[in-house]
Amino acid sequence: MPGLSTIYKWIREDKNFANDITEARRCGAQTWLDTAIEILDREDIPPQQFQIIREKLHHIRFLASKLIALYGDKQVVETKGDSTLTIKWGDEVPSLEHKDTAHAHANGVQKMEHNPDKKVLAINEA
Predict the structure, then answer these.
(1) What mean pLDDT is predicted for residues 47-57?
(2) Residue 118 lies inside a defined structural domain of this protein
(3) Handedness of CA 46, 52, 56, 62 (dihedral sign)
(4) Cα(64)–Cα(105) distance, rounded to whole angstroms?
(5) pTM for this structure?
(6) Sign of dihedral through CA atoms 50, 53, 58, 61?
(7) Assuming Cys at both sites, which of 18, 74, 90, 109 could form a disulfide with 126, CB separation 3.0 to 4.6 Å?
(8) C-alpha angle 104/105/109, rounded to 5°?
(9) How many domains does the chain have?
(10) Is 45 part of any domain?
(11) What pLDDT, in 10s, does the model give residues 77-117?
(12) Which residue range is the domain that position 17 belongs to?
């Protein structure tokens, strides 16, 4: 039997072999799930082994969720067609220009002035 490094090399180089290995791992995960069900059906489990069995079942469930999409926690969202989003504001496009000017001073006095002509205003001390 070839070593693991050789098998991993074949997986990298041959996509068909990689697909076969993935399918074999999925079948193995399903076998582990069947074993987990048999363990859960046992009634002769001593109380000292509950935690060990619980950990084994947790790992089996984790492996199955990663290898079998049906049991996984990932959801795949596929979009078909155009995914363009258009936002419109009627006939008028909002402007980024502001008509009000706020002034702040070192002494803490603030003043707001309406400036519809967008002219430079003198800062007035309050």
Answers:
(1) 88
(2) no
(3) positive
(4) 65
(5) 0.47
(6) negative
(7) 109
(8) 80
(9) 1
(10) yes
(11) 777 777 777 777 666 655 555 555 555 555 555 555 555 55
(12) 4-71
Give Dmax over CA atoms of the chain in angstroms: 90
What's the token pair of residue 31? 């076998």
Helix axes 4-13, 15-41, angle to 10 degrees: 120
Cα(34)–Cα(17) distance, integer angstroms? 26
Whether 29 is covered by a domain: the verdict is yes
Q: Please report whether residue 109 resides in a domain.
A: no
At residue 59's C-alpha, the angle toward residues 55 and 60, to 5°, is 115
Residue 36 has which token pair?
């987990």
Nearest CA to 40 among 57, 22, 62?
57
Say if residues 24 and 18 touch (Cβ distance below 8 Å).
Answer: no
Tell me the C-alpha distance between 59 and 32, whole Å: 10
Q: Which residues of 99-119 are buried (b: 16+ CB within 10 A; e: fewer)?
A: eeeeeeeeeeeeeeeeeeeee
How many whole angstroms separate alpha carbon 5 and alpha carbon 83?
A: 44
